[in-house]
Amino acid sequence: MTSALRHEAGRPRHARPGGASTVQMITPDTGARSILNGFTDIPPGGGIPLHWHNVEESVLVVSGSARVEVAGEWRDAQATDVVWVDAEVPHRFVNASDSEPLRIFWTYASATATRTLAETGETRAVAVEHDR
């Protein structure tokens, strides 16, 4: 396959820790070999746990406001800001609002990206972790 067009409405939504939910968009089943991406929605006051990946990640804040922890340093990010995180660097996103949802669009530098949770050390392939 040389290209793919995916509509979010036609994709499954998967629950994540911290009240978040994720929709994977471009995945290996589209033929992608070098990237993996999707949306994560985080409710007011929610957040995703501290974790890291085996590859670089770029995260666009689509809407809302975030508190982002990268390598122990906290930063504020707003809609249209982009956060880049190197491989193996612990990070997390927390919704900074008490009333508005946070939406991020993430892209990994490999279709075989993994996620390791800091709390448990458990590692899973991102593209298949929601199949469990």
From TrEMBL:
Domain Cupin type-2 stretches: 39-108
Organism superkingdom: Bacteria
Keyword Transcription regulation among UniProt keywords: no
InterPro entries attached to this UniProt entry: Cupin_2, GPI/OXD, RmlC-like_jellyroll, RmlC_Cupin_sf
MF term (GO), any: metal ion binding
Keywords annotated in UniProt: Metal-binding
Biased composition annotated in UniProt, kind: Basic and acidic residues: 1-11
Region (Disordered) location: 1-24
Organism: Silicimonas algicola
Protein name stated in the entry: Cupin type-2 domain-containing protein
